[in-house]
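Reminder: ligand-aware prediction takes two inputs, not one.
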Amino acid sequence: MIKYFELQRVSDSFEPELSEAINRVIKSGWYIQGNENAKFESRFAEYCGAKYCVGTGNGMDALTLIFMAYQQLGIMQPGDEVIVPANTCIATIIGVLRAGLKPILCEPCWDTCNINPEKIEECITSRTRAILPVHLYGRCADMDPILAIAHRYHLKVVEDVAQAHGAVYKGKHAGHLGDAAAFSFYPSKNLGALGDGGAVVTDDEEVASLARSLGNYGSSAKYIHPYQGINSRLDELQAAVLSVKLSRLDANNERRRTIARLYIDGIHNSLLTLPQVDEWEQHVFHIFPIFSPVRDRLQAYLTEMGIQTLIHYPIPPHKQGALSEYSSLDLPVTERIHREVLSLPLSPQMSDEEVGQVIAALNRFE
Ligand SMILES: *Cc1c(COP(=O)(O)O)cnc(C)c1O
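Here is what comes back for the chain with pyridoxal-5'-phosphate:
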């Protein structure tokens, strides 16, 4: 059986450093807001090429904290609008809603699955304050036109980098392409903790400092609370784990690209479409999506062949009960992606032989 993704194999590949890091934290007697957090934050900011990194409890909170910070700064007001891709992970949308802002769903491009810059302007109103590109599946959104529109309409650009740690767009790391960025370190992400974790990354000192206060019950100094914040901090154990894993993020992303190349070169079947990749460094293949009009039959066939696949995502956000006010939107590209997408097994620990088995099975599907 070829599993979609085996976290145990990932953890094993980082031993004994992972256990050593955890033991160091246990013995330190300090578990929240300490040296491990500070060390990881400065390393990760440097990795992204940004000035500031603020650890948070998870990726969705990182998004919420960015938008809470912009409201404290008076740049956004409750009810203002944020343009998001309609085919994102629902956490992107909930993260905006929970900050009291209104997500406006924008169609993606069929060939990249990222927000379609040509559709963004149709979504802009007098209440629009930000564009929130998501680098979905590990592929950078087309940032140049997005930044040009943001510049023209005086909008903030907030990146959702939960799936694209280490991706590079025109020489700059994802997470350093807009005004502020939200990362998730959910265990299965390209940089994953052993539990929940996230971060705000930005060059904006005010956003960084407000995100830190707002994520710590709104405190500016110990026992001083100018804001009504939330509790969302990266703990010492997760920070120590992330420091270990960050050291091999680039190597692991390179292995993901190698596997993606094997898939793209090896799979030949007219019943499915593969991702087209021109700029390899812009893609870190958090997910390897293929598309087929007979997706459900293909998935059942692969399961029978002992190959586990997943669907990212089976139901588009606007068809979820949580977002029923969006249900009548006409989003044909979004709906087609959700109907046809299938994620092949992909992790840096997969062997060439396992990749070959997946390719052979796909080439025999009829
Ligand atoms: C995983 C993910 C999130 C949410 O991250 P959490 O850490 O689980 O809160 C947000 N956006 C995208 C695109 C994601 O993939």
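The CA atoms of residues 66 and 154 lie 17 Å apart. The first helix runs from residue 7 to 13. We will return to this case in the review session.
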